[in-house]
Amino acid sequence: MAVVKIVSFGYLHDAPPTAHLTIDLRHHFRDPHVSPELRYLTAEDAPVRAAVLATPGINDLIEATAAAVTAFASGPSAGAVTVADGCAGGRHRAPAFALALAERLTAAGHRVSVRHRDLAKPVVQR
Predict the structure, then answer these.
(1) Pairing of strands 3-10, 111-116
(2) Looking at per-residue confidence, does 8 or 31 come out higher?
(3) Euclidean distance between CA atoms 77 and 26, whole angstroms
(4) Going by fewer Cβ within 10 Å, which terminus of the chain is more open, N or C?
(5) For residue 3, what are the β-bridge partners?
(6) Alpha carbon of 90 to those of 8, 47, 67, 105, 118: distances in Å?
């Protein structure tokens, strides 16, 4: 199986990291930031992960991304596959997605690392 590097990030902090596959979660998936009770939490908190993973379509996207990673890993070139997934601030949707994708890929036998580039940054006021 492949070595997979997953990087979650926030578009409002900096440009997306270089990756083989970049997933933009900003426009099609519910943002926990809009809920005052979730705004200052992160994907390290169970209520945020639950809110993100309950969003219609997100689990289908996790499965589709896992399938894309497998396709990249099946190619003739060796090397790690890098997935970058971003949301607005990098504290809610992107890291929750990254953790769920990592869980799915690990269960499939891939060796996975996850880095949350912007998780510890302050909440973006918008």
Answers:
(1) parallel
(2) 8
(3) 31
(4) C
(5) 111
(6) 7, 16, 23, 21, 5
**CA gap 82, 78 in Å, rounded:** 13
Which token pair is 66? 């896992």
Residue-wise pLDDT tens digits, 46-105: 999 999 999 999 999 999 999 999 999 998 887 899 999 999 999 999 999 999 999 999
pTM (two decimals) = 0.95
- The residue type at 117: R
How far is CA 28 from each of CA 18, 52, 71, 80, 101, rounded to the nearest angstrom? 22, 12, 24, 28, 17
For residue range 80-91, list pLDDT tens digits in order: 999 999 999 999
**Triad 32, 82, 52: Cα angle to 5°:** 15
Domain parsing of the chain, residue ranges? 3-116
